Structures are given as C-alpha cells and as structure tokens.
Amino acid sequence: MKKQAPAVISARARPEVILEILFERGLLYLSVRNIGEAPAVGVSVTFPKKLLGLGGTRDVSAQALFRNLEFLGPGREIATFLDSSHSYFSRRQPTKLAAKVAYGDLEGRRYAVTIRHDLGVFRDLVFVERPRADREDPGHTP
C-alpha cells in the first residue's frame, strides 16, 4: 500500500490580508480578510485616527479584532459592524481611510500593507430596505 505524502503548503503560497469595507442594504461593515493561500498569524490593523461607529458611540477601530488576531486561515474573514451609512455620513465622519495591515506567515516572515478606501462611494448608493416584518423574522426568506 502506497503512503500519501502530507499536505504541504506551496513555497509560493503565502497569506495576503486585507481590510475591506462592506456595504449591505445601507449598513457598513469592516472586514479583515485573508485572500491568500496560506494562514496568516499575528494580524493587526492600525488606523491613523479613531473610527467612530454605532451612531458615534463607539471607537470601532479599538476593537480587539484589529489589535491582535492570532490566526486567520486562507479564504477566511472576520467582519464587524461599523455603522449605518445614513448615520456615518450625517455625522460627517471621514470618508478617506488608510489602514496599515500587518501580519506574518507560519515560517516567521512578516508582511505589511497600507489599504486605502474612500467610503464616499457608498454615500449615494441606492438600496431597498426590507419591510419591517421581514427584518424582525430572521427565518423569513423573501
């Protein structure tokens, strides 16, 4: 009987972690995503200034998610709610965002990239709100 070789991560495979802004039906989310082919370790996201969300009541950029995420597998993401687009833009929050994403791989190499976003592109997006009854019943499918 022939033994199978253990799975080995290709020498070219590496983690690639990004920060994305997600827009879903008028809600803004921040997503830390590994779009690479290998696990990322020691992930951190640094913002140049506070990012106030939840109607201006919370410094979303101070969440533990952004300080030290020990492990993020390939193709995985973790997202957190930022604010409703209406609330965010009516409070005149910054639309230009630059975040430094730092992380490593399992071999100890470190990587860093600055990701820039312009949240202003979400300001004028048109979306349809679901009727209130649909929002209150998570089991409801339109």
Offer a quick outline of the entry.
This protein has 142 residues and is mainly beta. It has 3 helices and 9 strands, in the order E-E-E-E-E-H-E-E-H-E-E-H.
Percentage of β-strand residues: 35-45%
Total beta-strand segments: 9
Percentage of residues in helical conformation: 10-25%
Instruction: Give the termini distance in whole angstroms.
Output: 53 Å
H/E element order:
EEEEEHEEHEEH
Helix count from the secondary structure assignment = 3
- Classify the secondary structure makeup into a structural class: mainly beta
Which architecture per CATH? Sandwich
| Outline type | elongated
Largest sheet: 4 strands, antiparallel
Task: Explain what this protein looks like in three dimensions.
The protein is mainly beta and 142 residues long. The chain has one domain (17-121, 129-136): Immunoglobulin-like (Sandwich), CATH 2.60.40. Helix content is 11%, strand content 40%. The protein has three helices and nine strands; from the N terminus they run βββββαββαββα. The protein has helices at residues 64-67, 85-90, 132-136; strands at 17-24, 27-34, 40-46, 52-53, 58-59, 69-72, 77-84, 96-104, 110-118. The protein has a four-stranded antiparallel β-sheet. A three-stranded antiparallel β-sheet has the order 1-2-7. The model has no long low-confidence stretch (mean pLDDT 87).
Helices and strands, with pairings:
Elements: E1 17-24, E2 27-34, E3 40-46, E4 52-53, E5 58-59, H1 64-67, E6 69-72, E7 77-84, H2 85-90, E8 96-104, E9 110-118, H3 132-136
Antiparallel strand pairs: 1-2, 2-7, 3-6, 3-8, 4-5, 8-9
